[in-house]
Amino acid sequence: MVNKEMALLGTQRSVIRELAEYGRVRAQEIGKENVFDFSIGNPSVPCPPQVTETAAELLANTDPVLLHGYTSAQGDQEVRERIAENLNARFQADVRADNLYITVGAAAALCSCLNGLVCPGDQIVVNAPFFPEYKVFIEKAGAEMCLVDADTEAFQINFPLLEQAVNPNTKAVLINSPNNPSGAIYSLETVEKLAELLEAKSALFGHPIYLISDEPYREIVFDGAEVPFLPSIYANTLVCYSWSKSLSLPGERLGYVLVGDQVEDAETVYAAVAGAARALGYVNAPSLFQQICSRCVDLTSDISVYETNARILTEALTGMGFRLVPPQGTFYMFPETLEKDDESFCRRARDMDLLIVPGSGFGCPGHTRISYCVPTERVERSLPVFQALADSYK
Amino acid sequence: MVNKEMALLGTQRSVIRELAEYGRVRAQEIGKENVFDFSIGNPSVPCPPQVTETAAELLANTDPVLLHGYTSAQGDQEVRERIAENLNARFQADVRADNLYITVGAAAALCSCLNGLVCPGDQIVVNAPFFPEYKVFIEKAGAEMCLVDADTEAFQINFPLLEQAVNPNTKAVLINSPNNPSGAIYSLETVEKLAELLEAKSALFGHPIYLISDEPYREIVFDGAEVPFLPSIYANTLVCYSWSKSLSLPGERLGYVLVGDQVEDAETVYAAVAGAARALGYVNAPSLFQQICSRCVDLTSDISVYETNARILTEALTGMGFRLVPPQGTFYMFPETLEKDDESFCRRARDMDLLIVPGSGFGCPGHTRISYCVPTERVERSLPVFQALADSYK
C-alpha cells in the first residue's frame, strides 16, 4: 500500500554503505588499525578553524531570533551577495545575488534543478563513471537517465557516444568535474567541445539543452589544476555547488544553484528551480550555516593531505602494475582492476581487509574506486596490502 | 522548456509573504512602530539559552569531523535515542530509535511521508482550515488533495463531510493540531471519532488509510491544554514534528517522522519514508542541530508571551463584536471577518496598517488569520486599530 519504488529505495543499502558497515564490524574484530577502509567519501580533515570561530562569534553576538529564523526561500540576501562577490572575483563573472538559490547541499541543488526542468518524456544524459545517486534523483524527477559509457583512457568525455545519446528528448546533460569516482577534471578542451556539441544540438532540436554542472569538488584540485568556469563557456549552464567537501561540512547541508543571466530565459529557469525546491519541501537552507559558509567562502579545509595521499597511491599502485589515470582532484582515484570482474576483485581485496568499491556501481566495470580521504599513515600502511593483492594476480 | 508548474510555483508569491513585504515597505515610510504586522508565523521569542550554550559547548569540545560529518540518512543513533526517550517519558509510548527518521524540518517530514506513501490515483484528505503549502506538497507527490470544509463552530472536524470525502482512493488524512490558522486543538473526543471513522473505512476498503499528523505546534498550548498522542489512538498514524516553533529555530530545519511499531507493516512504511527522503535529495538532517535539538528536547522557548497575546486579543476582539473560537495553542487565531468577503476585509485592515491574512487561502473564507507571535506591546498598541476597523462596519 505504500509506494513500492520508494520502499525499495529505502531498503536497498548502497554497496558503499554496506562496505563501510562491514569495515566497522571488522574493526571491532581485528582492530581499527588493521582495516584499510577506502570505501566512503567523507572528508577526513577538519573544517578550517575560522568556521568554528565564526560559528561561536555568531552565536555569541547575534539576536537568536534573526540568526535561527526563516530566511527567504532563496537564501539570505547578504549571504548571496557574499557568494556572488567571491565568484566574481575568482572567475571574472558577473553573478548577482539574485542568480543564486541557496540549497540544503548539492543533492538538494541537483534535485531542485532536475525537478524544475524536467517535463514528461524528458531524458537526462550522464557520462560514466558517475555518482550513483544521480539515477535516483533523475528518475524521481520523472526523467529517464541516458548513460554514456566512459572514456577510460583519460576520463574525459566519450564524445562519439555522447553525440549519439543526445536526442530531441534530452533536457540536460549532467556532469561532475572534478569527478567522483575518477578524480579527473574536464579540461578546457573537453568543456569547449561539449559546449560546441550542445549548442549544435540545441539549434538542431530547437530548444535549449541545459548543462547541469555538479561541482562539490571544485576546490579540491592538485598541483594548481584549473576547473573551467562553465557559465562563461556554455550559456545554458546551471551550477550546483556544496561546501560539504571544501569546508568539510558534509552533514550541515549547504550549497547553491547558480542560474546566471547568460542562461536563456534565466528568470523562468530560476523560478522553476525555486518552485521545485518549494514543492520538494525545502523551505530554506539551514540559516546558521548560510551565515557561516558565506563568511568563510574564501577558505578551504587543509586539502593538502588529499594531494599527498593521491601522490603516494598513484606512484605505488603504478609501480605494482595497476593501470590508472592519475587523479587531478577530489579524494578519489579509479584504477583498473586486475581481473575483468571488478566485484570479484573487490571481494578479494575485502578478504585482505582492504575496502575498495567496485566500478560497476559507477557505470564503469573493470575499475575500482579508492577513496583516500583518510589519514596518510593509513595510506602508507595499506601499501603492502595493495602489493599482496597485486601479487595474488601474478 | 522548463517545467511550467514548477516555474509557476516559483513565481507565485504567497499572499502571506506579499503582505509581510508590504509591511516592510510601509514600515520604511511611516515607521516600524506604526505598522501592525500580524501576517507571518515566525517565532518572536528567542530559543532557550541552553540551545546557544549547547551549540557553543559542542563547537568547543567535539571533533569537527564528527560534529559536521554525514550522519546516517535516518539520523544519528544517539540523537534518535534521546528523542525516543523523551517521547516515551511524556506519552507512555514505546518508541524505539529506529522508529524515528530525522528530517530537514516538518516540511521535509511531510514530503517524505507523502512521497513515500502515494501511488498513482491516490487522494489525500485535508480538513479546512489548512496550511496552504499542503496542497503544493500533496500535488508534487502525485496525489490529489480533497478538501473537507471547516467545522467553523469549534474548528474541530466536520465529520459528515469527512465521511463523504474518504473513498477507496484515499491514501491518508493529513491533520494539523494544534492548528494553523485556527489555534484549535483536536479534542480527545474528536481524534477518537476520527480513529473510529478511519478504522471503519480501512476495513471497508480493505487497505489502511494513514493518518499523517503534522505537529509543529504540539508544545505551544495554553492553560495546560492537552494534545492527544495519536499513535496510541489510531495505529496507522505517522507523526511529523519540527523544533521550528517549540525551540524557535525555524531557519535551522530540524524535525522527524515517527513510524511506530503499531503501524501496519511498519518496516515497509518506514522504508518508504526513507526512500522518499533519499529520492528528494535529503541526504541527512543538519548534523550540528541534530545534536542540539536532541539535547534540548525537554525544553521550549518562553512561550508564555503567545498565551498572553492570545488572551489579550481574544478578550478585546470579542468585546468589539468579533466572533471567534478562542485559540487553545499555536500563535494564531482565526476570527470571522465583519463582512463576508474576507479579502475585502483584510484590504480595509491593511489600509489602516493592520496586516492580517484572509481566510480564503486556508480554505475557509469569511475568516482572517491573526499571527500574534509578536511583542505584547505591539498587540496592545494594535487594539485601537482593531477597534477602528470594527467601528468602520457599524
Largest interface: A-B, 80 and 81 residues
Low-confidence stretches of chain A: none
Structural class of chain A: alpha/beta
Helix tally of chain A equals 14
**SSE series of chain A:** HHEHHHEHEHEHEHEEEHHHEHEEEH
Oligomeric state of the chains?
A: homodimer
Rg of chain A: 21 Å
Q: Order of strands across the biggest sheet of chain A?
A: 2-8-7-6-5-3-4
Strand fraction band of chain A?
A: 5-15%
The major sheet of chain A is characterized as: 7 strands, mixed
Query: What value does the average pLDDT of chain A take?
Result: 97
The beta-strand count of chain A equals: 12
Report how far apart the termini of chain A are.
Answer: 53 Å
How helical, in percent, are the residues of chain A? 40-55%
Shape of chain A: globular
Describe the overall structure:
2 copies of one chain form a homodimer. Chain A is of the alpha/beta class and 394 residues long. Helix content of chain A is 42%, strand content 12%. Chain A has 14 helices and 12 strands. The first copy, chain A, has helices at residues 4-11, 15-30, 49-61, 64-67, 77-91, 105-117, 133-140, 159-165, 188-205, 266-279, 287-295, 304-319, 342-351, 376-391; strands spanning 36-37, 100-103, 123-127, 144-148, 170-175, 210-214, 237-242, 255-259, 332-333, 354-355, 357-358, 368-371. In chain A, the strands form 3 sheets. A 7-stranded mixed sheet of chain A has the order 2-8-7-6-5-3-4, with helices on both faces. In chain A, strand 5 (170-175), helix 9 (188-205) and strand 6 (210-214) form a beta-alpha-beta unit. In chain A, helix 6 (105-117) crosses helix 10 (266-279). The longest helix of chain A is centred in the middle third of the chain and has 18 residues, at 188-205. Chain A is globular, with a radius of gyration of 21 Å. Chain A starts with a helix and ends with a helix. At the A-B interface, helix 1, helix 3, helix 4, helix 6 and helix 7 of A face helix 1, helix 3, helix 4, helix 6 and helix 7 of B.
